[in-house]
Amino acid sequence: MQPQPPSTHRPPAAEGSGPQAPDQSTWRRDLSASLVIFLIAVPLSLGIALATGAPLQAGLVAAAVGGIVAGLLGGAPLQVSGAATGLVVVTAELVGQYGWRATCAITALAGLTQFALGAARVARGALAVSPAIVHGVLAGIGVTIALAQLHVVLGDTPNSSALENLAALPSELSHPHPTALLVGAVTAAVLVAWPRLPGRAGQWLRTVPAPLAAVAAATGVSTGMHVPRVSLPEWRLQALPALPDGPVLGIFAAVLTVTLVASMESLLSAVAVDRLRAGRAGMQEGPADLDRELAGQGAANVVSGLLGGLPIAGGAIRGSANVEAGAVSRKSTVLHGLWVLLCAGLLTTVLELIPLAALAALVMVVGVKMVSFAHIKHVQRHREFPMYASTLGAVVLFGVLQGVAVGIVVTAFLSLRRLAYTRITVEQDGAAHMVRVSGQLTFLAVPRLSRALAQIPAGAVVIVELGGSFMDHTAYDTLQSWTNAHRARGGWVTLRGRGGRPIAEPVSTHACRPWTPWRNHHCTRPSVAADAPAPGGGQQLLGGVSAFQRNTAPLVRDELARLAREGQCPTQLFLTCADSRLVTSMITSSGPGDLFTVRNVGNLIPPPATDGSCDSVGAAVEYAVEVLKVGSITVCGHSGCGAMQALLDSAVQSTTGRGTTGRAGDGTASGGKAADGRAPADPQTPLVRWLRHGRPSLARMQRIGRLGRGEVAMADRPVADALERLALVNVMQQLDHLMAHDCVARRVAEGSLQLHGMYFHVGEAQAYVLDPPSRTFTAVRPEVLDAV
């Protein structure tokens, strides 16, 4: 177990001091992240505006409003909103059909709809749509975007539909515009190669966002060339949006489409960014509130539509860049919107140097990335590729809303087919009859199941393999009735699931876990007659062993047979306390053969120079190091340790000359009356003689004093009390005792053995690992595996 680097330890604020002032470092991190996403958002917003046929200024309006309004009001603080990539095709169609002012009105109406949906708290319901449909929609939009912008890169103008763009592509490829093609090729090449720059210089260059580097390189290459460039009108308030002229049903469909696509893109992006946020330390904001996020997106779309901006949605590209850049709060998102606003007002001359072909290539690459092969593998693994492919094709051929409808229809059809389709076969495998059921076992399959079971002769050995994940009550009743009847005629029946795992029958299902307490625990208690005495601990233990043989032994028999053949070869020696509350296999998630475990009162390791009565632990250490060749040794202490309390009590007794009350955490006591009222332990008893090996730990703690003097600390909180401090010091002291063993010292010097310290707080169910250089115990967090 490799100790994690200790986090920066800050002492807790004194009680009554009130809230602390905001950490200046969070402002620095948010400011740095805001500049990064600003440099990504500006070229991307201009490219999306170009792709939709809207005024280029509209992209900057959407970026500024998305950053400020959605950043302040949204429920996903680290999500960055701006011009919606997923709405490029829809917006282009709206601009062509209704005009720009009417498109702004549709954007505002869609924003009002989003706000109402957020207020109605239905955001979670939107996530019920199959991921295959969502990814199919995004992929279809990406294909349409890429086809349209490829024409701009080749020096032409895109057509109104993906099919027309595809049909015209051969002629465009045969007669490209050389200058535009060069600019587009440079942009695409930089975008693809920038994240892969090698070496230390590449690492330094990658601090510049790839979109900014690509557009800057293309602008430099195009210097002196005659190519169409960005043309921004004078910054002024756009004409107010106007309601579109056309059928009410068509306008309603347009508003619904913008609402649906923008909401789905924003919510899915919020979930993705929230997962990234959860894996980072030091975040000020809590988990995403999807209903608030939907309402915030609606408010941003209303403002953007009224100001003449593009439809807005949260973007996974910008949001993930925000998290990767180190943002810790929503301040980075809001600041990025302010930088966009300043850029649009002060850097117009610089923006007008950018060639349009560079923006088209930028958006084209974004469109290609929307067709994610990782998503394709994911839906294929879950047998949902038909839904993905049909949605993608329908979006490309007919449009976004039609694509969603086709995807839902295909999903419903396949779900009904999977529910209704069941294949049942009967085969004879040696002396046994195999009944294999592929698919869901519902009432529709009961006639076929009955016919199959009728083929099996009485008294036969039968294995029923259920390959589906669902069985309704009718099918269960049919199978159970036949099973009981077959067994009554002398037959033998076993049920197993996919992969051959046995299925426990409901009447004998054992729902307990290995750590279920025996107190009020009836599942493993043997049944007794009414007039018999209550079962004692021995009968309880026997019942538990019986439950193991019935439920667990079939699952681990193969693994234990392998270990019996090959012998034990553990990787770690785990030395811990004999306390009954310390379940090593549970807190280490280990199984048979993983750990060579040594347990004793107080997790003590006597140095080699002690008398022969203490050779047991030394023999275990030597055997683990020299014979088993373990690669690490972990010493684990715990909270509420009775041995540590007995040491503390003995120190008080020697100081005051009075007896003290012992603790029964490990069943140890020293001096005075024990917890159960018995006389104090004899000074020459084996228990007292054993505890003397903990005296070096006690002396060490007394040397460092109450505050530890840098000798022992916890990274996440102060040490609770003297008992916990002694338990922590004892772990470090026993590691020093380990190094006194020649075999341990030799292998540590060779680099083939590592020593680790651990502390387990029983009441918190929290493990802490020791960082030896700083003598600090750091809490092990659930996300530690992501960093390994």
Automatic annotation (TrEMBL):
The keyword Ion transport does not apply. It comes from the Bacteria. Residues 1-25, 655-685 are annotated as: Disordered. SUPFAM superfamilies: beta-carbonic anhydrase, cab, SpoIIaa-like. One of its GO terms (molecular function) is zinc ion binding. Binds 1 zinc ion per subunit. One of its GO terms (cellular component) is membrane. Its main location: membrane. It is found in: Membrane. Its cofactor is Zn(2+). The keyword Disulfide bond does not apply. InterPro entries: Carbonic_anhydrase, Carbonic_anhydrase_sf, SLC26A/SulP_dom, SLC26A/SulP_fam, STAS_dom_sf. Keywords: Membrane, Metal-binding, Transmembrane, Transmembrane helix, Zinc. Pfam families: Pro_CA, Sulfate_transp. The chain crosses the membrane at residues 31-51, 58-78, 98-120, 132-154, 179-197, 209-228, 248-273, 338-368, 388-414. Residues 659-670 have a biased composition (Gly residues). It is a multi-pass membrane protein. Residues 28-384 form the SLC26A/SulP transporter domain. Belongs to the beta-class carbonic anhydrase family. Catalyzes the reversible hydration of carbon dioxide to form bicarbonate. This is SulP family inorganic anion transporter. It comes from Streptomyces telluris. The lineage of its organism: Bacteria, Bacillati, Actinomycetota, Actinomycetes, Kitasatosporales.
